[in-house]
Amino acid sequence: MTPSPFVRVFVVHVGFHTLWVLVYAVSLLGVFILIPLVGWYNAFVLGFLGKSVLASATRAAFLGYVVFALTGLLSGWIVSALRPRSVWIPACLSLALTGVLLTSASWLRHKMVGVSGLATMLPLPATTGRADADQMSLALKTEYDLLEPAAPPHFSGKGILVPLAEIQPSLRLLPKNFQMQGGPYVYCNLTAEVWKALKKPGGPRYPLLWSTQPDSAGKRLVFSVDLDTDVFSDELVSDDELARRLGELEAAVGRKAGGAGSQLQQ
Question: Which end of the chain is more exposed for a tag (fewer CB within 10 A), N or C?
Protein backbone atom coordinates (compact mmCIF):
# COMPACT_ATOMS: atom_id res chain seq x y z
CA MET A 1 0.00 0.00 0.00
CA THR A 2 1.43 3.36 -1.07
CA PRO A 3 1.61 5.95 1.74
CA SER A 4 -0.55 9.03 1.29
CA PRO A 5 1.05 12.28 0.02
CA PHE A 6 0.63 13.75 3.49
CA VAL A 7 2.65 10.93 5.09
CA ARG A 8 5.39 11.07 2.44
CA VAL A 9 5.91 14.82 2.90
CA PHE A 10 5.97 14.39 6.66
CA VAL A 11 8.59 11.63 6.36
CA VAL A 12 10.80 13.84 4.17
CA HIS A 13 10.84 16.61 6.78
CA VAL A 14 11.37 14.40 9.82
CA GLY A 15 13.81 12.22 7.88
CA PHE A 16 16.01 15.23 7.14
CA HIS A 17 16.41 15.95 10.84
CA THR A 18 16.94 12.25 11.53
CA LEU A 19 19.96 12.32 9.19
CA TRP A 20 21.45 15.08 11.36
CA VAL A 21 20.74 13.05 14.51
CA LEU A 22 22.62 10.13 12.94
CA VAL A 23 25.56 12.43 12.16
CA TYR A 24 25.52 13.58 15.78
CA ALA A 25 25.43 9.97 17.02
CA VAL A 26 28.36 9.00 14.78
CA SER A 27 30.36 11.99 16.06
CA LEU A 28 29.84 10.73 19.62
CA LEU A 29 31.38 7.40 18.60
CA GLY A 30 34.69 9.14 17.92
CA VAL A 31 34.33 10.65 14.42
CA PHE A 32 35.29 14.07 15.76
CA ILE A 33 35.59 15.61 12.29
CA LEU A 34 31.77 15.71 12.20
CA ILE A 35 31.48 17.87 15.33
CA PRO A 36 31.82 21.22 13.44
CA LEU A 37 29.00 20.09 11.11
CA VAL A 38 26.79 19.41 14.12
CA GLY A 39 27.60 22.86 15.52
CA TRP A 40 26.83 24.53 12.20
CA TYR A 41 23.44 22.83 12.00
CA ASN A 42 22.57 23.85 15.56
CA ALA A 43 23.65 27.45 15.02
CA PHE A 44 22.24 28.16 11.57
CA VAL A 45 19.24 25.85 11.18
CA LEU A 46 17.96 25.59 14.75
CA GLY A 47 19.66 28.71 16.13
CA PHE A 48 16.38 30.66 16.20
CA LEU A 49 15.40 28.50 19.21
CA GLY A 50 18.11 30.23 21.22
CA LYS A 51 20.44 29.10 23.97
CA SER A 52 18.75 25.74 24.54
CA VAL A 53 20.00 24.32 21.23
CA LEU A 54 23.30 26.18 21.12
CA ALA A 55 24.46 24.88 24.48
CA SER A 56 23.34 21.24 24.12
CA ALA A 57 23.28 19.12 20.98
CA THR A 58 21.10 16.57 22.78
CA ARG A 59 18.41 19.19 23.40
CA ALA A 60 18.79 20.33 19.80
CA ALA A 61 18.05 16.79 18.63
CA PHE A 62 14.76 16.63 20.56
CA LEU A 63 13.64 20.18 19.75
CA GLY A 64 14.57 19.65 16.10
CA TYR A 65 12.13 16.77 15.91
CA VAL A 66 9.40 19.07 17.24
CA VAL A 67 10.24 21.75 14.66
CA PHE A 68 10.40 19.41 11.66
CA ALA A 69 7.33 17.49 12.77
CA LEU A 70 5.39 20.77 12.72
CA THR A 71 6.80 21.84 9.34
CA GLY A 72 6.12 18.34 8.00
CA LEU A 73 2.50 18.46 9.14
CA LEU A 74 1.96 21.90 7.60
CA SER A 75 3.72 21.07 4.35
CA GLY A 76 1.98 17.70 4.11
CA TRP A 77 -1.40 19.37 4.42
CA ILE A 78 -0.56 21.95 1.72
CA VAL A 79 0.86 19.38 -0.72
CA SER A 80 -2.11 17.07 -0.16
CA ALA A 81 -4.47 19.94 -0.92
CA LEU A 82 -2.64 20.71 -4.21
CA ARG A 83 -2.72 17.03 -5.32
CA PRO A 84 0.39 17.07 -7.56
CA ARG A 85 1.15 14.13 -9.87
CA SER A 86 4.49 13.53 -8.17
CA VAL A 87 4.71 14.08 -4.43
CA TRP A 88 8.49 13.85 -4.01
CA ILE A 89 9.37 17.03 -5.91
CA PRO A 90 7.04 19.32 -3.92
CA ALA A 91 8.05 17.48 -0.75
CA CYS A 92 11.72 18.27 -1.37
CA LEU A 93 10.88 21.84 -2.40
CA SER A 94 8.90 22.33 0.81
CA LEU A 95 11.86 21.01 2.79
CA ALA A 96 14.22 23.41 0.98
CA LEU A 97 11.86 26.30 1.69
CA THR A 98 11.70 25.24 5.33
CA GLY A 99 15.50 25.24 5.48
CA VAL A 100 15.64 28.75 4.02
CA LEU A 101 13.03 30.03 6.50
CA LEU A 102 14.72 28.43 9.51
CA THR A 103 18.16 29.66 8.46
CA SER A 104 16.81 33.18 7.91
CA ALA A 105 15.09 33.15 11.31
CA SER A 106 18.32 31.98 12.97
CA TRP A 107 20.37 34.64 11.18
CA LEU A 108 17.92 37.37 12.24
CA ARG A 109 18.06 36.20 15.85
CA HIS A 110 21.86 36.22 15.83
CA LYS A 111 21.84 39.67 14.26
CA MET A 112 19.42 41.00 16.87
CA VAL A 113 21.36 39.75 19.88
CA GLY A 114 24.70 40.88 18.40
CA VAL A 115 28.17 39.67 19.29
CA SER A 116 27.79 40.33 23.01
CA GLY A 117 24.49 38.50 23.10
CA LEU A 118 25.96 35.52 21.29
CA ALA A 119 28.80 35.43 23.77
CA THR A 120 26.23 35.18 26.54
CA MET A 121 24.19 32.56 24.74
CA LEU A 122 27.15 30.50 23.59
CA PRO A 123 30.17 31.25 25.79
CA LEU A 124 33.45 29.82 24.58
CA PRO A 125 35.09 27.33 26.93
CA ALA A 126 38.58 27.82 28.29
CA THR A 127 40.87 25.14 26.93
CA THR A 128 44.47 24.03 27.13
CA GLY A 129 44.38 22.78 23.55
CA ARG A 130 45.65 19.36 24.62
CA ALA A 131 44.18 16.50 22.61
CA ASP A 132 43.69 14.26 25.66
CA ALA A 133 42.02 17.10 27.59
CA ASP A 134 39.69 17.85 24.66
CA GLN A 135 38.72 14.19 24.49
CA MET A 136 38.07 14.03 28.22
CA SER A 137 35.97 17.24 28.12
CA LEU A 138 33.86 15.80 25.31
CA ALA A 139 33.40 12.53 27.22
CA LEU A 140 32.27 14.35 30.36
CA LYS A 141 29.97 16.63 28.33
CA THR A 142 28.40 13.63 26.62
CA GLU A 143 27.58 11.95 29.94
CA TYR A 144 26.28 15.30 31.20
CA ASP A 145 23.92 15.77 28.25
CA LEU A 146 22.54 12.23 28.48
CA LEU A 147 20.97 12.96 31.88
CA GLU A 148 17.65 14.78 32.18
CA PRO A 149 17.93 17.38 33.48
CA ALA A 150 21.54 17.70 32.41
CA ALA A 151 24.03 17.17 35.24
CA PRO A 152 27.48 15.68 35.82
CA PRO A 153 27.19 11.90 36.18
CA HIS A 154 27.05 10.42 39.68
CA PHE A 155 28.70 7.05 40.33
CA SER A 156 26.74 5.17 42.99
CA GLY A 157 28.56 3.39 45.78
CA LYS A 158 31.59 5.69 45.62
CA GLY A 159 32.69 8.59 47.78
CA ILE A 160 32.72 12.30 47.03
CA LEU A 161 36.22 12.15 45.52
CA VAL A 162 36.77 9.24 43.13
CA PRO A 163 40.03 8.42 41.29
CA LEU A 164 39.66 8.83 37.54
CA ALA A 165 40.82 5.24 37.01
CA GLU A 166 37.67 3.99 38.75
CA ILE A 167 35.21 5.90 36.59
CA GLN A 168 37.03 6.03 33.25
CA PRO A 169 35.52 2.72 32.01
CA SER A 170 32.06 4.25 32.54
CA LEU A 171 32.80 7.22 30.26
CA ARG A 172 31.48 5.62 27.10
CA LEU A 173 33.12 8.05 24.67
CA LEU A 174 36.67 7.21 25.80
CA PRO A 175 38.49 4.34 24.06
CA LYS A 176 39.77 1.50 26.23
CA ASN A 177 43.41 2.55 25.75
CA PHE A 178 42.80 6.21 26.62
CA GLN A 179 45.26 7.80 29.05
CA MET A 180 45.32 11.28 30.56
CA GLN A 181 48.76 12.84 30.77
CA GLY A 182 49.93 13.94 34.19
CA GLY A 183 47.77 13.23 37.17
CA PRO A 184 46.64 11.31 39.05
CA TYR A 185 43.17 12.81 38.76
CA VAL A 186 40.12 12.80 41.03
CA TYR A 187 36.46 13.29 40.12
CA CYS A 188 33.93 15.28 42.16
CA ASN A 189 31.17 12.70 42.63
CA LEU A 190 28.26 14.83 43.84
CA THR A 191 24.71 13.71 43.22
CA ALA A 192 22.55 15.12 40.45
CA GLU A 193 20.29 16.67 43.10
CA VAL A 194 23.21 18.65 44.57
CA TRP A 195 24.40 19.83 41.14
CA LYS A 196 20.85 20.88 40.30
CA ALA A 197 20.68 22.90 43.53
CA LEU A 198 23.92 24.68 42.58
CA LYS A 199 22.62 25.78 39.19
CA LYS A 200 21.85 29.49 38.94
CA PRO A 201 22.08 32.21 36.26
CA GLY A 202 25.55 33.68 36.04
CA GLY A 203 26.99 31.15 38.49
CA PRO A 204 30.71 30.27 38.54
CA ARG A 205 32.40 27.38 36.83
CA TYR A 206 32.73 24.54 39.31
CA PRO A 207 35.67 22.08 39.26
CA LEU A 208 34.61 18.57 38.27
CA LEU A 209 37.87 16.70 37.63
CA TRP A 210 41.38 17.81 38.56
CA SER A 211 44.95 16.60 38.98
CA THR A 212 46.07 15.95 42.55
CA GLN A 213 49.70 16.86 41.81
CA PRO A 214 51.09 19.97 40.05
CA ASP A 215 53.11 19.63 36.84
CA SER A 216 56.70 20.81 36.37
CA ALA A 217 55.46 24.41 36.05
CA GLY A 218 53.50 24.20 39.29
CA LYS A 219 50.12 24.06 37.51
CA ARG A 220 47.23 21.65 37.83
CA LEU A 221 44.85 20.61 35.07
CA VAL A 222 41.24 21.31 36.06
CA PHE A 223 38.06 20.36 34.19
CA SER A 224 35.19 22.68 35.09
CA VAL A 225 31.50 22.92 34.25
CA ASP A 226 29.31 25.99 34.01
CA LEU A 227 25.93 24.68 35.16
CA ASP A 228 24.11 27.70 33.71
CA THR A 229 25.48 27.48 30.16
CA ASP A 230 26.37 23.73 30.15
CA VAL A 231 29.88 24.60 28.94
CA PHE A 232 32.88 22.47 29.92
CA SER A 233 36.39 23.93 30.22
CA ASP A 234 39.87 22.58 30.87
CA GLU A 235 42.52 24.88 32.30
CA LEU A 236 45.94 24.84 33.91
CA VAL A 237 45.71 26.72 37.21
CA SER A 238 47.89 27.30 40.24
CA ASP A 239 47.47 25.47 43.55
CA ASP A 240 46.05 28.62 45.10
CA GLU A 241 43.50 29.06 42.31
CA LEU A 242 42.39 25.43 42.56
CA ALA A 243 42.06 25.79 46.34
CA ARG A 244 39.95 28.92 45.84
CA ARG A 245 37.62 27.17 43.39
CA LEU A 246 37.27 24.10 45.60
CA GLY A 247 36.55 26.36 48.55
CA GLU A 248 33.88 28.12 46.51
CA LEU A 249 32.32 24.78 45.60
CA GLU A 250 32.48 23.56 49.21
CA ALA A 251 30.76 26.72 50.43
CA ALA A 252 28.03 26.45 47.78
CA VAL A 253 27.43 22.77 48.56
CA GLY A 254 27.40 23.53 52.27
CA ARG A 255 24.66 26.11 51.78
CA LYS A 256 22.57 23.84 49.56
CA ALA A 257 23.27 20.37 50.92
CA GLY A 258 24.32 20.82 54.52
CA GLY A 259 28.07 20.35 54.13
CA ALA A 260 28.18 17.45 51.65
CA GLY A 261 31.20 19.01 49.94
CA SER A 262 33.39 19.52 53.03
CA GLN A 263 35.75 16.72 51.94
CA LEU A 264 36.75 18.21 48.59
CA GLN A 265 40.13 19.52 49.75
CA GLN A 266 41.12 16.62 51.96
Answer: N
Q: Which residues span the domain enclosing 163?
A: 131-257
DSSP 181: S
pLDDT per residue over 92-115, tens digit each?
999 999 989 998 988 888 777 654
pLDDT in tens, 27-38: 777 666 777 777
Residues of the chain with pLDDT under 70: 1-2, 30-32, 52, 54-55, 113-126, 256-266
**The residue type at 34:** L
User: How many angstroms separate the CA atoms of 3 and 189, rounded?
Assistant: 51
Q: Please give the single-letter amino acid code of residue 46.
A: L
Residues 180, 86, single domain; the answer is: no
Final residue before a domain boundary, out of 92, 121, 150: 121
CB 149 within 8 Å of CB 55? no
Q: Is residue 193 part of a domain?
A: yes
- Find the helix or strand (DSSP H, E) in which 253 lies: helix 239-257
Q: How far is CA 109 from CA 39, 43, 101, 102, 104, in A?
A: 16, 10, 12, 11, 9
Q: Specify the length of the chain in residues.
A: 266
Beta strands in the chain (DSSP E): 161-163, 185-188, 205-211, 219-226, 231-238
Burial class (CB in 10 A: 0-12, 13-18, 19+), 214: middle
Indicate yes or no: pTM above 0.70.
Answer: no
